[in-house]
Amino acid sequence: MSDQYKTIVEIAESKLVVKKSRFIGLAASIDAVQAVKDFVTIAQEKYPRATHYCYAYSVGFGREKREYATDAGEPTHSAGPPILTSLKAAELSNVICVIVRYYGGINLGMGGLIRAYGKCAKHCLANAKVETRIFYQALRLRVPHERIGAVVNLCHRLRGNVSNIEYDRDAIIHLQIRQRDAEKFQSKLKGIDSTVEVINAVTS
């Protein structure tokens, strides 16, 4: 599995009018499903008294990926799925997109709704500022003082980051290594000194 993914920075927005119905797209990065409700609330507060607040999200990776779409009162499969399709087409992860609709008095029909929701979502994501984020493994190591330099140099060679060094009976080094290099890093640690100990490791 790749150790990097694309998501968006800040809140992206788009607007679309179709036969007097106003569609407003809002998209943002989220790190967990628990954040979905909060972002939908933001959309409801920013655009109150709308007819519908339809949305889709994609959170997590690999086997832990969770995707969801809701039509929120629109005809079945006319709103949520087109939004989710736009998310997938943009190849974005950890993202939610909410489409707010103010009904304009003219029925759009199933095809019209699908096109409107999909187009508004597509434009919203196209307006977003995208960045690549990397999965790191945070390691805490117990290292003999005479091996500090060798461990730090190894970390830097693999483009990792040393965040802190605690000096005690042994040194405790806090560092981050890209997920894809974590196994290589730990293997090379053994070549530096067999007494170097990984106290804990957390992927973030």
Describe the structure using short key phrases.
204 residues; alpha+beta; Ribosomal Protein S5, domain 2; 5 helices
Offer a concise description of the structure.
The protein is of the alpha+beta class and 204 residues long. It has helices at residues 36-46, 80-89, 109-126, 148-157, 182-192, and strands at residues 4-9, 12-18, 21-29, 52-59, 66-70, 95-102, 129-134, 136-143, 161-167, 171-178, 197-203.
Secondary structure topology:
Blueprint lengths: L3 E6 L2 E7 L2 E9 L6 H11 L5 E8 L6 E5 L9 H10 L5 E8 L6 H18 L2 E6 L1 E8 L4 H10 L3 E7 L3 E8 L3 H11 L4 E7 L1
Antiparallel strand pairs: 1-7, 2-3, 3-6, 4-5, 4-6, 8-10, 8-11, 9-10
Helix pairs in contact: 2-3, 4-5
Percentage of β-strand residues: 35-45%
- In which range does the helix fraction lie? 25-40%
- Second-tier CATH architecture of the largest domain: 2-Layer Sandwich
Using the coordinates shown, work out and report the CATH topology of the largest domain: Ribosomal Protein S5, domain 2
CATH top level assignment of the largest domain? Alpha Beta
- Strand order in the largest sheet: 2-3-6-4-5
* Mean residue pLDDT: 92
Question: What is the overall shape?
Answer: elongated
The domain count comes to 2
The major beta sheet can be summarized as:
5 strands, antiparallel
Number of helices: 5
| Gyration radius from CA atoms, angstroms | 23 Å
Structural class: alpha+beta
The helix-strand sequence is EEEHEEHEHEEHEEHE
Strand elements, count: 11
CATH superfamily of the largest domain: Impact, N-terminal domain
The residue ranges in which pLDDT falls below 50 over 5 or more consecutive positions are none
How many angstroms does the end-to-end distance come to?
A: 15 Å
